Amino acid sequence: MSVWFTVQLDDKPGSLARVATALGERKVNITGIVGVAEDTDGALMLTTSDPVATRLAFEGLALAFEEHDASGGLDPHEMSVADVRAR
């Protein structure tokens, strides 16, 4: 089953790199990614090759995340930061 993860990124250089590095260190491939930015707020939605290792990577970063079943009605291509916050 495909899982979409949603995370809020800090508004500072290297935030996305920090997430990608943590996943790479666990041999996790990012299989889908959508980013939304409005002013200084940003949300990242992604699917990966290994949801379990993704959870561990996010927990290791103390990064809050939400999970969404790919069939759960979320279309990351049509979402805004406000939509992500409402979930």
Task: Please tell me about this protein's structure.
- The chain has three helices and four strands.
- It has helices at 15-25, 51-60, 81-86, and strands at 3-8, 30-38, 41-48, 65-69.
- It has a four-stranded antiparallel beta sheet with strand order 2-3-1-4, with helices on one face.
- The model has no long low-confidence stretch (mean pLDDT 84).
What is the gist of this entry?
By secondary structure, the protein is α+β, with helices and mostly antiparallel strands. It has helices at 15-25, 51-60, 81-86, and strands at 3-8, 30-38, 41-48, 65-69. 31% of the residues lie in helices and 32% in strands.
List the helices and strands and how they pair.
Elements lengths: L2 E6 L6 H11 L4 E9 L2 E8 L2 H10 L4 E5 L11 H6 L1
Antiparallel strand pairs: 1-3, 1-4, 2-3
Count the helices. How many?
Answer: 3
Report the uncertain regions: none
Q: Give the fraction of residues assigned to helices.
A: 25-40%
**Alpha-carbon distance between the termini?**
20 Å
The top level CATH class name: Alpha Beta
| Inertia-based shape | globular
From the helix content, strand content and strand pairing, which structural class follows? alpha+beta
What oligomeric state is this? single chain
Number of domains: 1
Which architecture would the CATH scheme give at its second level?
A: 2-Layer Sandwich
Strand order of the largest sheet: 2-3-1-4
| Total strand segments | 4
Topology pattern, helix = H, strand = E:
EHEEHEH
Indicate the CATH topology: Alpha-Beta Plaits
Whole-angstrom Rg: 12 Å
Main beta-sheet strand count, sense and barrel state: 4 strands, antiparallel
